[in-house]
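Feature request disguised as a bug: please show the residue count (326) next to Asparaginase in the output. Example input:
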Amino acid sequence: MTDTSILVLATGGTIAGQAGSATRRDYRPGQIEIADFLASFAELGVTARLDGRQVANIDSVDIGPAIWRDLHSACIGATRDPQCGGVIVTHGTDSAEETAFLLDQTLPTAKPVVLVGAMRPADAVGSDGLRNFANAVRVAADPQAAGRGVLLVMGDQVFAARDARKARTSGASAFAGFPRGPIALATPASLDWLSPPWREDEAARFAFPDTFPRVPILHAYAGMDADAVQRELAAGAKGIVLAGMGSGNAPAAVLAALAEAVRRCVPVVRSTRVDEGLVDREPEDETNGFIAARALGPAKARVLLQLLVASGVSDPAAAQAAFDRR
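Example output, currently without the count:
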């Protein structure tokens, strides 16, 4: 461990949840305050200087721009504090990939920023929260964790925010990394990096938005018509993400309506509802003006499109480049 401290920003989630019984399936997330959580962690004998701050204590399905702004501000402060070696964000797993990716795109990479959660509440049989947190402490305290963007630690694995996704609804190994898999293996006693840093000393790629533009996700399905596209345009959508069939496909009427949206200066990203796989550019994308999501699923494609729209990026080639880069 280093001599610097690690800032722990708590937002709630299952890692701070309680069921009142070791075997109950139902539980309430966001019940344990960060001071109590860190006290229980200290009993494990792991030596680290941890400074806790309660940002929220909620179910992560309720997280959004206001809490994101508080997290971002706290992380920026930590990057400027020479006494802070890194940041850990305790977070519910349902929206962790969106929070991680947003911070990944709006923070510099000079210090480690690590999200961590749990799939089982603190008082459940086989609770994974303290072990995941111990792993996150090891990652955040390692200088080699810098230069990789924001990281997510779950199930003894470390994922880059761009790759991390919740792949299963239950189980301690619920997260996966696509397309690159885990970038490190972590335990409370060891940390093994599987690849070198790729974003050393990189500035933030985007400014944190003053407001988040309306960008809906439309899920394609058999028999879908253009009505959903028209409703979102009428509601003021500033961009649209298609969670398409297969490699980002949709019925012809839907694609025609989306192409019309692009002509009305509403950017459209083709992603996929399939769990894994790339959505590459196709010849029709040039004609229609669509952006290919590449390895980003619909949720993260939405975050990136919001950042592009908020930053005033209107050139399709520049937008595509943002989706292409690691």
